[in-house]
Amino acid sequence: MVVRIGDGAGNGLLGTAVSDRLVGNGGNDTLTGLGGNDTLLGGTGNDRLFGGGGNDILKGGAGNDTINGGGDGGSFPNIDQLFGGAGADRFIFGLGGGRDDIMDFQDNVDTIYISKTYFATKAELMQNVSSSGGDCAIDLSGNGDDSPRIVIYNIDKSQLANDIVLF
Question: Is the Transport keyword given for this protein (predicted)?
Answer without folding.
Answer: no
